[in-house]
Amino acid sequence: MTSTDHIGQSHRRENALRHLAGRGRFVTDLALPRMVHAAFVRSPMAKGKIVELDVSAAAEAPGVVRVFTAETLNPICAPWTGTLDHFAGMKSAPQNMLAEGQVLWAGHPVAMILAHSRAEAEDACELVLLDIEDEEAVVDGDAALVEGTPLVSEGIDSNLCFRTVLETPGLDEAFANAAHVVEDSFTFGRHTAVTLEPRAVVADFDPSTGQLTVHHGTQTPYQFQDVYAHQFGLPDNKVRVIAPDVGGSFGMKLHVYNEEMAVVAASLKLGRPVRFVADRLESFVSDVHARDHRVSARMAMDAQGTILAMDVDDMTQIGAISTYPRTSVAEGNQVIRLMGAPYTMPDYRGRLSVVFQNKVQTSQYRAVGHPIACAVTEALVDRAAEQLDLDPIEIRQRNLVADDAYPHVSATGYQFEKLSHHAALAKLREIMGYDALRAEQAELRKQGIYRGIGIASFVEITNPGAAFYGVGGARVSAQDGAIVRLTPSGEVHCAISVTEQGQGTETIIAQVVADQLGVTPDQVKVTTGDTDTTPSGGATWACRGAGIGGETALRAGRRLQAQILAIAGAVLQAEPATLALAGGTVVDKATGKERITLAEIGRIATYRPDTLPEGCDNSLTAVQHFAPTGYPFDFTNGIQASHVEVDIETGVTRLLKHWVVEDCGRIINPLLVDEQIRGGVVQGLGPAFFEECMYDDMGQMTNASLADYLVPMAGEMPDIEIAHIETPTLDTILGAKGVGEAGTAAAGAAAMNAVNDALRPMGARISQTPMTPLRILTALGHV
Amino acid sequence: MKADITLTVNGEAVRETVEPRTSLADLLRDNLRLTGTHLGCEMGACGACLVMLDGVAVHACLVLAVQADGQKVETIEGLNDSGLIKDLQETFHDRNALQCGFCTNGMLMSAYALLAGNSDPSRDEIRDALSGNYCRCTGYEAIVDAISAAADHRLNKAKGAQ
Fold first, then answer.
1. Which domain holds residue A96?
2. 3-state helix, strand, coil in chain B (%, to 5)
3. Do residues A99 and A239 both lie within one domain?
4. Does A143 reside within a domain?
5. Residues A119 and A43 in one domain
6. Are residues A81 and A223 in the same domain?
7. Cβ atoms of residues B86 and B143 within 8 Å
8. What are the Aldehyde oxidase/xanthine dehydrogenase a/b hammerhead domain coordinates in residue numbering (chain A) (predicted)?
């Protein structure tokens, strides 16, 4: 008998209390004895050859401890190359910490200065003589592929990183027989994570013991333990990575960066702690950027509006070098595989070209690929509805995969266990008051007020197994591990490999463990983010904390439950199968009557194991690892709606309201799930309306500050109403799937459809993000 | 050419010798180790470094430490210890109005300053008051809800006292 009292409840986060008291523990807060501060001299040009690099004056500057260049630092680190075997034919240049001979983007680190304070290190950067012979930068992806264009970097033979095509045999016939074909070209801007805490690392090598400890603001500490061990030739048990409180990550902080590697290298060289915290300008020119796609797409339909096929060509621009260890191809790969995913569409062709240019790398960021695939698909569905004079709800009802038609395989080969598109659509229509909104829209148009309603169905990839990266050779763990123990006083401790960045991981793990052991979540202390004290695992990426981490915790909890019941059985001379755990005690399973407390079990097993029968195992610690099996991914689904008002004189869009219906399987904590969705929605609306890394034609980022790069703020964001469908996965006991990407996946798509719905009476249309006032006015023909 | 300054931080007298370029944020974080004040942009755009300076919410990254000479500074640590924001802390906790926690200091400062001057703010007024506070995690709605709930609690309490 397992209590389910706490799974499904809105428990508050205990770790939130520290932050509310000003007692967060971020890497940026850390100051260690003997610590020095790092600053980097960066390339001011997007591409060029280093002709001269003289650091002698900087080395003599006040407070400076050491200056490193590629020549003095790179040899202790093995180069890394961001390619994976399952992306056949992909290529990328090898990388190392400081630029060797050639600079590849504006911001590329060239020299590292270590000083007693960051201010002194920055002062010394000014004294470095860096002479770069400017070379023609490749700044545009289409131009990069034109013959005769210079190569983005040495070590590659063309500017094409990767190309692939997915195609069903019936594609051409589907288009030939179509009654209607709609098509468009889309541009999705380049944006970036802008975590409020920038990237931060403090590396601390102790030469006396050979121990390297790296305090690293990351979501994947085990991955970095492995990276540091391998690249610097250290045994991994001598590398400890600690990720304490992390001020936002969203995928951006799981990539290998030059600066973090250089900080570790410098600590190895100096034998003292080295700190680097990116300032905001450095964040903009060195954190990975995201998206940057140009997509041409067409959709074929029969006379009734049944979707027959999509034909998609995506060109994505990834900067100078593919990221390590996950590559910069995964985003585009997911774009072409998620196209049309909610629909019964039988045929498909998706072409992907991943292209280098001399800009900051792009790579995985929240909802990898989803927003692009969703926006293209949903825009074409709306276009089709318009052409067939169908309501956007009606065309989706005709095409969404039926809720009783699972398992289903998409035209792109994704296997769906069970989704709930129609139930979600029906619920959305109800909660948003769709019909009333349409009536209001028609009324307001007569008054010259242009409101729009946009809908977007989506599918989200969660609970990934090794198919994501491991099969391609990446040392990225797809399994997780937990250690659950009963303390001598009968409390519970769980050390687990999934990590916390504020989404509530520790809280849901406590809830899951509590229910296996018959205690309350506040009796379960959860430890995360330290490779020395928790088992190795994938941690947090691609939506796996609840689904995989939760299942790991559940199984570990059950294992400990069995051990406790075995000891209790021995003490009570009862069959363990007749006992259960509830209310902090061992109870008689049939009557619920208390037999012995957990505190008493802890006491006996710890202090008086001699009183246990001979051969009775007194272990009160259980270890469990779990790797997902069954479906390669647990897909989730949902639908979003956006309600906007466009001022056709100024081009300004006001976001009036947003709705989400989401199915993430079994919900462990409704409060936390809803806030994941809300945060995700706003992270999708940001790049739909505001966020864009602007570059000039020399490859300079021209808005690299928080005054110039617009992020979504409270005043512009709408209230977001959320409802749920619950379709648990049968692949696990827990039945939970992920929810972290859901909001971001479709918010922009819904918003673009809403803006175009508002613009429809003027015959205008926009298919570029962000949808700035200027672009909307351009679409309206006003500028 | 460092400067001697004296100021009151969270009720405690502080005497420090600082470089003229040292910001109030760096003084608080690096010298006094009051790390609840965060730095997100160092140009007054994100609000993570807000502190109360003589009763006014200011960006500690835009104030030089020497400018704070002779003044009273309240940081999140001080407001926490004083109990003045206990209700806001509770409503933020109840409503899960924070995720990573990096913006939370600034959100609480803005909320504290707002409610000091407006006991019954509308949702739009709350959103306006947060116009200089960037949060990447929550989407803001929970923060608006939490501030609104704290305002309601204060109003109800005031009514109850009449």
1. 31-135+194-286
2. 45, 15, 40
3. yes
4. no
5. yes
6. yes
7. no
8. 21-136
The domain boundary, picked from A558, A592, A626, lies at A626
Instruction: Go through the domains of chain B in sequence order and give each one's CATH number.
Output: 3-80 (3.10.20.30), 85-161 (1.10.150.120)
Cβ contact, residue pair B45, A715, below 8 Å: no
Q: What is the pLDDT of residue A2?
A: 43
**A275 phi/psi in degrees, rounded to 5:** -115, 135
**Binary contact (A22, B77; C-beta < 8 A):** yes
* CATH number of the domain residue A87 falls in: 3.90.1170.50
Among all residues of chain A, which has the CA nearest to that of B130? A714
Q: Does A703 touch chain B (CB under 8 A)?
A: no
Q: State whether A568 and A453 are in the same domain.
A: no
Residues A280 and A300 in one domain: no
Contacts of B147 in chain A (CB under 8 A): none
Are the beta carbons of B40 and A719 separated by less than 8 Å?
no
The CA distance from B162 to the nearest CA of chain A, in Å, is 31
User: How many structural domains is chain A composed of?
Assistant: 3
Tell if the CB–CB gap between B77 and A24 is shorter than 8 Å: no
Decide if A17 touches B, using CB distance below 8 A. yes
- Which residues in chain A are closer than 8 Å to B100, comparing Cβ atoms? 195-197, 245-249, 501-502
The pLDDT tens digits for A94-106 are: 999 999 999 999 9
Name every chain A residue with its beta carbon within 8 A of the beta carbon of B40: 196-198, 280, 706
The ipTM of this complex is 0.98
CATH of the domain at A521: 3.30.365.10
- Residue A1 pLDDT exceeds 50: no
- Residues A246 and A253 sit within 8 Å (Cβ to Cβ): yes
The residue length of chain B stands at 162
Edge-to-edge strands of the sheet including A450-462? A450-462, A634-646, A653-663, A720-724
Q: Collect all residues of chain B within an 8 Å Cβ-Cβ radius of residue A501.
A: 99-100
Which residue, among B73, B141, B148, would best test binding to A if mutated, counting the most A CBs under 10 Å from its CB? B141
Answer yes or no: is pLDDT of A663 > 70: yes
Q: Is the pLDDT of residue A3 over 60?
A: no
* Nearest chain A residue to B75, by CA: A22
What's the CA gap between B62 and B70, in Å, rounded?
17
Interface of A with B in 462-481 (CB under 8 A): none
Considering just the CA atoms, what is the radius of gyration of chain A in Å? 28
Pair of tokens at residue A91: 């290529």
Give A252's contacts in chain B (Cβ within 8 Å).
Answer: none
The distance of A20 to chain B (nearest Cα, Å) reads 6
pLDDT band at A4 (very low <50, low <70, confident <90, very high): low
Which residue from B minimizes the CA distance to A715?
A: B127
Report pLDDT digits (tens) over A586-623.
Answer: 999 999 999 999 999 999 999 999 999 999 999 999 99
Euclidean distance between CA atoms B36 and A23, whole angstroms: 6
Contacting residues of A for B111, CB less than 8 Å apart: none
Question: How far does chain A reach from its first CA to its final CA, in angstroms?
Answer: 69
Residue A471 lies inside a defined structural domain of this protein: no
pLDDT one-digit tens code per residue, A720-752: 999 999 999 999 999 999 999 999 999 999 999
Mean pLDDT per 10-residue segment, chain B (162 residues): 96 97 98 98 97 97 98 98 98 98 98 97 98 98 98 92 75
* Sheet with strand B12-18: strands edge to edge: B12-18, B3-9, B72-74, B50-53, B56-59
Question: Do A697 and A569 fall into the same domain?
Answer: no
Say whether B136 and A26 touch across the interface (CB within 8 A): no
Task: Let me know whether A563 and A489 are in one domain.
Answer: yes
Ranges of H-type helices in A271-391:
280-286, 330-338, 370-388
Q: Residues A694-727: pLDDT tens digits? A: 999 999 999 999 999 999 999 999 999 999 999 9
| One domain, residues A269 and A314 | no
Out of A234, A268, A286, a domain closes at A286
CA distance A252 to A394: 38
Contact state of B136 with A504 under an 8 Å Cβ cutoff: no
